Predict the 3D structure of the following.
Amino acid sequence: MIGRQIVDFNIPAGKTSTIMIPVELKGAGPQNATVKIYVNNKLWEFPVQVIPAAKTYPVRTVEGTPEPVQKNTGRQQAGHQASFSFGYDDHHLSLSIFVKDNTPSGAPDRRNPWEQDCIELFFDAAPGFIPEKYINSYHDYVARLFILPYAEPENRLIFQSRGLNKFTPENVKCVVNTMPDGYAVKLTIALEALQVPQTNGLRLLGFDIAVDNAIGGEKAVQQLMWNSSGDAYKNRCSFGFIEFH
């Protein structure tokens, strides 16, 4: 990994700032690197962890091409497939999800959301935030949403909003259509609920999706994910990104 240019920046006393440093990555790249900072005729070196490059989905005013969710983090199940697509307007983000699954899990019973047929959505409204410690950990603006396609409509959505206090049922509308070979979900989210930030001229959200698959009343045996390898429930750095155009 090689820095492509020197970046000049100023940080006021007592403040923090996110600095973008363009780099060129060759091959798989290293797991660790060193950032060198030159201040007052003195060179400081800081070791840093290198996070693997994440997938990015371009969100436009016309709903985009379906993106496959195909990273398998559980036991392989033939015929289990999923995809999603985004679009947006001045006020709302729309998300369409299609799941091919001919073994519906039925009523939730006492299973946890991820132990049945379930879609897990992960949103990071501050993807550029870099804390001094525990960079992978969730912060206040990371939210989760569980969608249970076979639950009663009033129990279909389970929110973990944390600091996104407008990420609520009032601002998130969901329609589910079940079919013999799977189900389709249409989600409409008020943009203000996600507080879409602008980072260095880009409007970005951290995002990932998991599709859990159970057979009948059993616990889930398979999970498909988009970018993460299965640890998105605790590692925000494993999310991909959606970029608004």
